[in-house]
Each structure stands twice: as C-alpha cells, then as structure tokens.
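Please, structure for the following, as tokens.
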Amino acid sequence: MSIHRPGRRAVLKSAAGLALAPAALAGAAAAVEAPPPGKPGDFDFLAGEWRIQHRRRPSTGAAFEAFEGEATCWTILSGVGSVEELRVPSRGFMGMGLRMLDVEKKVWSDHWVNARSGVVTTPGQTGYFKDGAGIFEADDFDGETPIKVKGVWDRITDNSCRWSQLISRDGGKSWEDQWVMDWRKV
C-alpha cells in the first residue's frame, strides 16, 4: 500500500490558499482583460492649434483655480509620437508633453517637461485608448507620500477634447480630480 504525499510546493500553495483547480486558474486569467494595443495615429486628434480652459486644484481638497492657456501640437514619426507645447501666458508658464508609442509593446507613454526645469518626468504615465478615451497611469510621490496618478483623454471630437488628471492617495480605491483641461481647436 502506497501513501500519496504531496510535494513541498503543493503543501506551501495549499497553506497559502493558492491551490486552485486548473480550470479556476484559466477562468481567472480570462477575466483579466488585456488593454487594447496602441497604434500609430492614436494621438492624431491632438495635432493643431488649441485654446484651453484650465481648472486646477492647488492642493488636495482645495477649490479649483480657473485660467486660460493655449497649445500647439504636432504628430511626429508617422503617428508614433505626439509633441505638445503648452503655454499659459497669464502665469508665465510653459511646458511640453511628449507622447510616444512603444511599437513593439504597443503601449503609449506620456511624459512632461516643465520649461522651468527642462527635466523630463520619469517614469511617465503609460496607457492605451479604449472606447474613445485614452487612459494613462503611473505610480508617483507627493513629497514622501506614494500616490497613483491617472491622466484621461476623453470627449474627443474633431474640434475639442478634454484632459483630466486624477490623484489617488489610497491605492486607487478613490480618485480626486486635480486638473481638468477643456481643449477647443482654433
């Protein structure tokens, strides 16, 4: 009479609650939907001259400040990249958005350069377009506090779009608008 003794790995997985039937594992994997692949031209809507109405919170929970700005945007490298020069004359502010498609991974990255520092943000947000909206996320810090940052491009038409930045201080359970930009093509 032989006695079946499970291997060490099976015992550890069982103790950790990880011993699942293969069918259950396959179902769980199918439930996690991969984001749609990025493709050249996803940011073509942004090319042109824009006037922008900004609403920005100077700090968490504060009231929004409103101000106007403008931008000039170009599609580069046959749609693999997009460059934005943002200007806010009333605040003496300028910056540049750089969006690039990793052609092999089919994922967009979105980086920012403040003209005051000239430093490209790293890591930039990475994301994709789904159902007419671009969703870009990154882990970052507010001082010493870890936060999640989400940038969303939506309401995209031939002559308008909206970009909003949201912040989560609880690991993505709740989000607060930090900056909303309503774009109108000139």
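Residues 1-26 have pLDDT under 50 and may be disordered. Residues 75 and 137 are 22 Å apart (CA to CA).
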